[in-house]
Amino acid sequence: MSRRSSSKLLTTGIVGTVVAAVCCFTPVLGVLLGAVGLSALLGFLDFVLIPALLAFFGITIFALVRRPNISSPPKSGSKES
């Protein structure tokens, strides 16, 4: 996995985790959906937001594990620069 794709995956995981956590644990969606008149959907949000939070958390962990070790030099014959 290249550094660029690893960095992009890590960024996606972190941003997704933060957004899902904010929506799960704060009344942001309650206020927004209430303002638009869709507050009846609040009962179904847990079925979507908690799996999304877990999925993004998993992506973040996966990206951290797969991240190339920057302190070690690339192997000889490697095409990474």
Per-chain topology:
Blueprint: H1 3-25, H2 28-36, H3 45-66
Helix pairs in contact: 1-3
Low-confidence stretches: none
What portion of residues is helical?
A: 55-70%
What order do the SSEs take from the amino end to the carboxyl end, as H and E?
Answer: HHH
- What is the mean predicted local confidence, pLDDT? 80
Task: Provide a count of the helices.
Answer: 3
Radius of gyration of CA atoms, rounded to a whole number: 18 Å
**What does the main sheet amount to?**
none
C-alpha geometry: rod-shaped
Assembly level: single chain
Beta content? under 5%
What structural class do the secondary elements suggest? mainly alpha
Amino-to-carboxy terminus distance:
13 Å
- Give the beta-strand count: 0
Overview of the structural elements:
Helices cover 67% and strands 0% of the residues. By secondary structure, the protein is mostly helical. It is rod-shaped and about 60 Å long. The model has no long low-confidence stretch (mean pLDDT 80).
Task: Describe the structure using short key phrases.
81 residues; mainly alpha; 3 helices; 67% helix; rod-shaped
Short overview:
With 81 residues, this protein is mainly α. The chain is built from three helices and no strands.
